[in-house]
Design brief:
homodimer; 124 residues; mainly alpha; two-stranded antiparallel ribbon; 6 helices; 52% helix; globular; DNA-binding
Amino acid sequence: MMILNRLTTLRKAKRWSLQYTADRLGIAKSTYAGYESGHRRPSLETINLLASLYDTSTDYILGRIDHPAKDITTESQVMELTDLPNMKLAVDGISLSEEETIQFVAFIRAKREVELNRDKQNET
Amino acid sequence: MMILNRLTTLRKAKRWSLQYTADRLGIAKSTYAGYESGHRRPSLETINLLASLYDTSTDYILGRIDHPAKDITTESQVMELTDLPNMKLAVDGISLSEEETIQFVAFIRAKREVELNRDKQNET
DNA sequence: GCAAATGTACATGTTACGCGTACACCACAT
DNA sequence: ATGTGGTGTACGCGTAACATGTACATTTGC
């Protein structure tokens, strides 16, 4: 059995729905759902697209390698956290789980939302 | 059209025949020949095997990258968040402020603390 | 020149892919 | 409570395209 269950993790890291992802891929929602559930498997083109959309490599999606990194060294100086599979971050020497990063991104978004609303209140 | 014509080059670089390659892959000669001629396309498993046999990556075989280098995995660089005074992280394209990064670390530590205590509770 | 190995082309049966559809579930507003 | 839109899941069907065997062409070694 080929490792494709990484798709679900990758998609949720982007906070995308099945429908949205399927639209980006140009296929039906049920089709993409089949990939994640393991009942169906994507075409080569779709694998390619997925690697691009999820900012990773086909090798990672296919389970050939265990690190989803695109080439970190060539990345720009600013690293996007929502592209989290591209990097490994640690706190106190313990690597962040993807779940932790997802939670933090949600945390930051909520915090900014609050600040945005507060600013709006302060407008004349 | 997907770039698969690299297969012929890769195979000849190894000085392998169609038959030998097909045997290594566990498929019929005509089947593998179909890949190189472009009339047929390999399964995901076969793509995987091909990348391994030819000592390259699926990304190269699929035409996602142009260099056949095997080690596309810049081996897991783990970056310690607390050691990154000038590390630039972003969420939704907006760079994290230093305070936000501090909050990030605090957030993770608090979460882990909670989990640690919960685990202790669950011990007999 | 011959034989064996290699490469190419094709017809066929069968797999499994993509889609639509239907359903359960949840959040939220009415 | 009832409705509405969005999400994830499961299934049956029609069909594209895959794997194979076979046959033929071409090259290689003797």
